[in-house]
Design a protein that fits this description.
One of its GO terms (molecular function) is dTDP-4-dehydrorhamnose reductase activity. By secondary structure, the protein is an alpha/beta fold. It has 10 helices and 12 strands. α4 runs parallel beside α5, α6 crosses α8 and α8 crosses α10.
C-alpha cells in the first residue's frame, strides 16, 4: 500500500454519479473524482492512465452502466462498463498494491430465496445489468488480491437519477401513481453508503491491508420495504413540505411490465460488513426523509 494510505488520496470513478458526488461531499479534499472523458471504460487506455496520473492511496469504482432496462439492448456497452472495464481497473490497482473498492448490486440475485441474501448465496442474475455486474465482481476479484466488492441496492440521493426523485417529480404532476408493491429490498442512500466506504477506508488505513479484507460484502441500509413503501415514504415527506400528496396504488409486478425482470425479493444481509469492519449503515427511513428534504430545498 502507498505510504500515505491513512490520509492519502481516494480516487473515485464515475465522478458525476450519485455515489461519487456523495463521496466527494463527505470525504473532502482527499476525494478526487474522475469521469468521462478522462476516465472512460469505453476507452480502456484511459483506465490505467487515470490511476497513474492521480497516484491514489485507494480507488473506489463508482462508475457503471446503471440503466437496467436499456442494458437489455446495449449488452456490449454494459459489459465494458460493468465487467471488462472494472477488471482492467483492478489490474491497474493491483500493479501498484492500491486497494480497490468496487460497487456491485442486489440484482446479481434472482430474488427467489425468500429471505435476505448472504454473501455466500449463489448468484443468479436475471438481467443483462445483473449479469454484467456479476461478471464484474469475478473480474475484479480475479485481477486484484486487494479488492473489496460492496453489493448495495436501490440507491437514491438528492442528485442524479433515481427512483425517489422520479416519484417526487411524478407526484407533482399526477394525482395518482401506480407503484409495484411486491418487490422487496433495502433502499440505500448514497450519502450513507459514502460514509460507510470512508469508514472502511479509515479502518484499512489504521491496520494496513489485511488479506482477510478481500472479498464480497453486502452494504445496504437497515430495514426493508417495497418500491411502493419507498414511494409512500418519499411522497409523505414531500407532502409535509406542502407538496400535493397523490393517491398511490400498490400494484403487482405483472401490472408494470419492464424489459428487464426485477428480483421479487433482493434483500441483503449485512452482518459480514459489521463483523469485519465494524460498519453498519443507518435505517433507510430517516435517510429518505433527509434526502427528500434536500431535494425539495434545492428544487
Ligand atoms: N443506482 C442504484 O440504484 C444502484 C447502484 N449500484 C451500483 O453502485 C455504483 C454507483 O451507482 P450510482 O452512483 O447510482 O450510478 P450513477 O448511474 O449515478 O452514475 C454512474 C456513473 O458511471 C459513469 N459511467 C457510465 N458508463 C461509463 C463508462 N463506460 N465509462 C466511465 N464511466 C461511466 C457515468 O458517467 P456519465 O456521468 O458520464 O454518464 C456516471 O457518472 C454502480 O456500480 C452501480 O452499479 C448498486 C445498486 C443500486
Ligand atoms: C417509475 C415507476 C417504477 N415502477 C417500478 C418498476 C420497477 O419494478 C421498480 C423500480 O424501478 P426503477 O426502474 O426506478 O429502478 P431500477 O432501475 O430497477 O433500480 C435498480 O437500479 C440498479 C442500478 C440497481 O442496482 C438496483 O439495486 C436498483 O436500484 O419500480 C413502478 O411500479 N411505478 C413507477 O411509476
Amino acid at each position: 500500500m502507498n505510504e500515505d494510505a491513512t490520509g492519502g488520496r481516494i480516487l473515485v470513478t464515475g465522478g458525476n454519479g450519485q455515489l461519487a458526488v456523495s463521496l466527494a461531499a463527505a470525504g473532502g479534499p482527499r476525494v478526487v473524482k474522475t469521469g468521462r472523458p478522462e476516465f472512460d471504460f469505453d476507452r480502456p487506455e484511459t483506465i490505467a492512465a487515470a490511476v497513474a496520473r492521480h497516484k491514489p492511496a485507494f480507488v473506489v469504482n463508482a462508475a457503471a452502466w446503471t440503466a437496467v432496462d436499456a442494458a437489455e439492448n446495449e449488452v456490449e456497452a454494459a459489459r465494458r462498463a460493468n465487467e471488462t472495464g472494472p477488471g482492467i481497473l483492478a489490474m491497474a490497482c493491483a500493479a501498484q498494491d492500491i486497494p480497490l473498492i468496487h460497487i456491485s448490486t442486489d440484482y446479481v440475485f434472482s430474488g427467489d430465496k425468500g429471505a435476505p441474501y448472504v454473501e455466500t448465496d449463489p448468484i443468479s442474475p436475471q438481467t443483462v445489468y445483473g449479469a454484467t455486474k456479476a461478471a464484474g465482481e469475478k473480474a475484479v476479484l480475479a485481477a486484484s488480491p486487494r479488492a473489496i466488492i460492496l453489493r448495495t441496492a436501490w440507491v437514491y440521493s438528492a442528485h442524479g437519477r433515481n427512483f425517489v426523485k422520479t416519484m417526487i417529480a411524478a407526484g407533482a404532476k399526477n394525482p395518482k401513481l401506480r407503484v409495484v408493491g411486491d418487490q422487496h429490498g433495502n433502499p440505500t442512500s448514497s450519502d450513507d453508503l459514502a460514509d460507510a466506504i470512508l469508514a472502511i477506508l479509515a479502518r484499512i488505513g489504521q491496520t494496513g491491508w489485511l488479506p482477510g479484507y478481500a472479498g464480497i460484502y453486502h452494504a445496504t441500509a437497515q430495514g426493508e420495504t417495497t418500491w411502493y413503501g419507498l414511494a409512500v415514504a418519499a411522497l409523505e415527506e414531500a407532502a409535509r413540505h406542502g407538496r400535493s400528496m397523490p393517491q398511490i396504488e400498490a400494484i403487482r409486478t405483472e401490472d408494470w411490465p419492464t424489459p428487464a425482470k426485477r428480483p421479487k425479493d433482493s434483500r441483503l444481509e449485512c452482518g459480514k460488513l459489521k463483523q469485519v469492519f465494524g460498519v453498519q449503515l443507518p435505517h433507510w427511513q430517516p435517510a429518505v426523509v433527509r434526502t427528500v428534504d434536500k431535494i425539495i430545498s434545492t428544487d
